[in-house]
Each structure stands twice: as structure tokens, then as C-alpha cells.
Specification:
By secondary structure, the protein is an all-alpha fold. The chain contains 3 helices and no strands. It is elongated, with a radius of gyration of 21 Å.
């Protein structure tokens, strides 16, 4: 059983290394100008309170 677990761990470690190497090459595009503001405006329109704002207020 231990041999199978080690083999499985090695498989997942190898796969993780491959994914990590591939993700380094990918460049994520920046958000379009005003995207964040439009999301916040839509949340306000729907009555959704961003959780991060509450957390920031408590930290001050």
C-alpha cells in the first residue's frame, strides 16, 4: 500500500511541477479601464455589500 501511495504522490508532484512551469509562461492581461468601478456600481445597484470593505473598516 505504501508503494502505491508514494507512486501516487510522485505522480501528483510531477503534474504540479508541469502546471507550475506552464503557468509561469502565461501572461495575464490587465482588466479594461473602469472594470472595477463598473463591478462596484453593479453591486451597489443590486444592494450587495462588498465584504472586503467591511474587513478594511474593522482594521482601521
Amino acid at each position: 500500500m505504501k508503494h502505491r501511495e508514494k507512486k501516487c504522490e510522485k505522480h501528483w508532484a510531477d503534474e504540479f511541477d508541469q502546471l507550475e512551469a506552464a503557468s509561469r509562461e502565461i501572461q495575464v492581461p490587465s482588466a479594461p479601464p473602469g472594470e472595477f468601478e463598473s463591478i462596484l456600481a453593479e453591486m451597489t445597484r443590486r444592494g450587495i455589500k462588498p465584504r472586503i470593505r467591511k474587513e478594511l473598516k474593522h482594521d482601521k
